[in-house]
Amino acid sequence: MQRGLFITFEGADGCGKTTQIELLDKYLRAAGRDTLLTREPGSRGLGEKLREILLNYDGEVSPTAESFLFLADRAQHVDCIIKPALKEGKIILCDRHTDSTVAYQGYGRELDITQINYLNNIATGGLKPDLTIVFDIDVETSLARVGKNKDRMESAGIDFFNRVRHGYLDIARKEPDRVKVIDSSDTIENIHKKVLELVNCL
Ligand code: TYD
Prior knowledge:
Helices cover 55% and strands 14% of the residues.
């Protein structure tokens, strides 16, 4: 059996990562690989309930409480879905993971990054992605793509999203072996080619 792989996809809202994950999934399946396409927050079961709160709850949510909800979703996701699938040798394509909490709650909400890293490590039991691709896009373009129908997170404002973008670029600078940045202003086809180059190096 081929070794399982864990690949995560990151970037601001509207960066085009979902399209790219779907294209990669199609490519890998056509090549006979067994994939699992999943996401955070909310893959299934308990995660779906947490996603509903995180994206749509309209009362006050403190940044710390928000972080713990994302982390609870992550712990459930890693234990019940990601680790079993890795054991089966699957290639896991995960739309958002630990770096979202660093970028959004750490840089965006300005919580302590060292503490977020520590909590992420507890939530994942130390599991690290084999590869993380950050789709980088300027904030004006990403917010324009999201449009007027914004969820709770997407309503956070331009300064927040500037910090999130800076956060992702910082993460990539700190962990260049794991985290690769792709310029998301390119065409869908060119971005797909760059994704394949990265995945084929694994
Ligand atoms: P989603 O609709 O999945 O957005 P996208 O299609 O852009 O991935 O919503 C997830 C939102 O939750 C998104 O705004 C990013 C945010 N988020 C965090 O703030 N922290 C996290 O740890 C995760 C996983 C997501």
